[in-house]
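--- STAGE predict ---
source: upstream dedup step, 1 unique chain passed
mode: sequence only
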Amino acid sequence: LTLTEPILRQICTALDKEVPSLLLRGMGSVTHCSKMSTPQLRKSPGFKPLLSEAKGSLPSGENIRDNDRRLVDIVNRVLEKKIASAVGLLGCAAARTNVWTLTLPQVTSLELFLQQSIEAGDVDVFRMAVAHVQDKAYMESKLSKHLFKKLYDNSQQMSPEGVAYFEPILLQGDLWGPSVNDMHPEFAEHGMDHWSFDTIDQQIVTGHPLTLWPWPHANLFLLFYHEENIRGAIQPEADWQFQTTKRLDHDSIPFVPALLAPIGYAFFGTPRGGCTAKKKLIMQAMRSASPVVLVDNTPNVAKQLSLAVTALRRVYEHAPLSNCRPFLDDSASTALTGTPALQELLQAVSPGKILQYVEDQFDVSGMDNSDKLTPSDIMGLMDFMKRRPQAFREMVCVLDPLMDNIDRAMPQMMAAFTSHHTGLNECNSVGFNHSLLLKAWGLHAKLTRTEVALRRLLTGTVFLVFLALNMSTAIAMLMVCLHVNSAGTFQSIMFSPAPDLLPEKDENLPDIVMGMHVLLIALPIAAALLI
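--- STAGE serialize ---
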């Protein structure tokens, strides 16, 4: 079964959730949160305040080197907390703009740091995980296979009623218990507090719970399975002998996330190499105007891209010519004066000087050549800026865990998640405006009809209140008249010692007076309720 847009909308309806405006996907590694710094990163200028703070916490009088184990541990712990805080801001921006996170079989730093913020109570964002039940990594574990079978045997047809009244299925937690699951030596000893692998494709990762089950902290799981091909079967069953050809293979999942919502990316650095494919994907995402959040001061490619984008974004500042002067071509620098146009300024920027600035700010000696930024990468970013300057300004964000605060980072990320520049089409295309105008006029017509209905309701309510108050006033005056007529004069009512002043000749008169008393109380109350 391939998920189509109508089916995905039915799922959202069953969950009583709006269709997400964006799906945010993490890009990075599975490096443990406490091991995000590298020697090259610690030498960069952005880390100097953090290093000074860490050295100040150690005993004074010692000659502490930058690679001292104690210093590195302190830096890693502080960096972990700061990244978790920054990712918490990212999650808050996602929650406020109806953005869901998307987790594929391979977990990334986004899920790891976001979970820390959620456990701390800083954020609550809706998370969706997608996986193939018969993935090779899952089927090789008896514990995982047993849990998936139990889920399948207790499954039922999806409906809003089924979601509302379905009784939860209790799964044994042996898979996540270090005292029970001893398939992975590091997990058996440290649990989730430590692991030494950085990528899923390393041999040492085999048996770790991160590879034996989809991300367990998601709110919605889309689990796909392969059916048995048995002739004459009334209802097809899952083929538990089948397994995918590769471990944690998202290509085997018949799911296209873009059918549900546009895709955005949160890009984290990877301490070790092998990020060529991810660099190409994130560059392609930026050129296609997908929302991209670059987490600065994380290793290697993320740090390089953050420096390059930060340098290029100087063209949007209040004094662009003076701010961009270090990156301008020598021949064009003297020709520009005053406040040049954006296109003129971009034309004068030298890709070589941008790349040199990146290499001066970050030591790339420890990176694979295929992972390093090249002049063609810088030229690709500049070409996109020339074609769609406003899209680049809104859609590409740099989130610095060491420097950013909520007042700056939150609005920028929310603007990226809600920008109408998403996609390959320009915002002034005919199709875009036609669709937008139709939706706007449809909403205008709906609001007009609602206004007319509410105005009629208000008019009727005012009339009923007016009628109730006038009737109560009339009844009160009539009762006074009855008392006056029975006593002869108004003055005699005020001073008469007899409480009963009504004539007793008419037998129905007491009932009439009682009814008036009731109406005199009921009508003002009704008027108050209508107001």
